[in-house]
Amino acid sequence: MAGTTNAFEMAQRQFDHVADLLKLDPQVREILRWPLREFHFRIPVRMDDGTIKVFQGFRVQHNDARGPNKGGIRFHPSETIDTVRALATWMTWKCAVVDIPLGGGKGGVVVDPATMSTGEKERLVRGWVQQMWKNIGPRKDVPAPDVGTTPQMMGWMMDEFSKLQGDYTPGVITGKPVGGGGSLGRTEATGFGVIYTVREAMKHLGMDSSKCTAALQGFGNVSQYAAIGFVEMLKGKVVCVSCWDREDKVSYTFTKMDGVDPRFLMSITDQYGTIDKAKAKAAGYVIEDGEAWISKEVDVLIPAALEGQVNADTVKKISSKVRIIAEGANGPTTPEADEVIKERGIFMVPDFLCNAGGVTVSYFEGVQNDMNFYWSKEEVLSKLDEKMTVAFQGVLDMALKEKVYMRDAAYMVSIARVVKAMQLRGWI
Questions:
Q1: Which of 21, 224, 228, 297 is most open to solvent, judged by the fewest CB atoms within 10 Å of its CB?
Q2: Do the annotations mark residue 221 as ligand-binding?
Q3: Taking the domains of the chain in order of start, what are their residue ranges?
Q4: Do domains 35-171 and 187-354 have the same CATH topology?
Q5: Does the pTM exceed 0.90?
Q6: Is the CB of residue 160 less than 8 Å from the CB of residue 43?
Q7: Any binding-site annotation on 190?
Q8: Residue 306 banded pLDDT, cuts 50, 70, 90
Q9: Which fold has domain 187-354?
Q10: DSSP letter, residue 238
Q11: How many Cβ atoms from other residues are within 10 Å of residue 18's Cβ?
Q12: pLDDT greater than 90 at residue 54
């Protein structure tokens, strides 16, 4: 999905590096390097023209020592089992770093959802559940939306599971629409979570957020709310966002040096994160090459698109002004780029800490489903802020104590928690 970068090899390399630092027992390492379970299946779907099309589906359950597996379902034409394995692995560490009682899982279907009608998408997601329903559930594995999937699709999935199960089971899926078992605050959760960690990083570095600038890659849900948070919560300025243009099949960067208006851009963006170029130009935005975001002279870079975007080549373009990289996406930085970032002393907020707001509010959604009692948006976001702040502080304390890079510190915190759960359960 990201050129030559194999996401799962990258996830294993990151893990191996920290396993060495922790002197992890080889047997424990062998359990954690690979998913515990994988499901590969074919989903036949009747298309609107009456033909049957068969789609490849996946679900990977990496580790459930700390609780049911948790993780999104990604619909993408370049989906691979290795991408799903990597994302499931990162979900284990993500749930552990924010200390929620869940393990890591991830799902996928090889498909471009933009080419399907609403009815075709509904039949595909119901088909996914029909293949997996005996191996998911509130106490087994709880899917959620990801790239290419939406709250409405989660509503259909929950409905299909409930029909097959014979019980109304809202807790089987999170990221559902509000009014259909969803949680208020879920839409903003990942992007705002990114900003809560950026705020804490700025406090640590003694930066005044109101004088800071940021460049963002991507303009899907995470990037949209990270941009809003940076402008409205931190009072900073976002100078550009980038996005994938579905018609031109390339990325563009939308730049406005006096500050982009994220809410305006959202109003001219389609459901797949493609910004209307003509309307943006008319509003004074300069449209540049898709990689232009990474070379901007800003204080904060927020890669919030796909994995492998900050790599051995692109890392050289990062301005000397950049002080923080906050990974809104999963796996946006390759190990080669990490070495350069370490040498340059840029403060890294690693992905599975930075973007854990989504899974945290998904956890809150499951709790509310269990209670059959729902919280206000203010309560959800206040609980999220507290969780993210405590998690950030725990990782920072580990980084300072062990004198290690923030990514390594986040892994140390997570791996220690998962290993402890495995010991307490008698697995090792």
A1: 297
A2: yes
A3: 35-171, 187-354
A4: yes
A5: yes
A6: no
A7: yes
A8: confident
A9: Rossmann fold (3.40.50)
A10: E
A11: 20
A12: yes
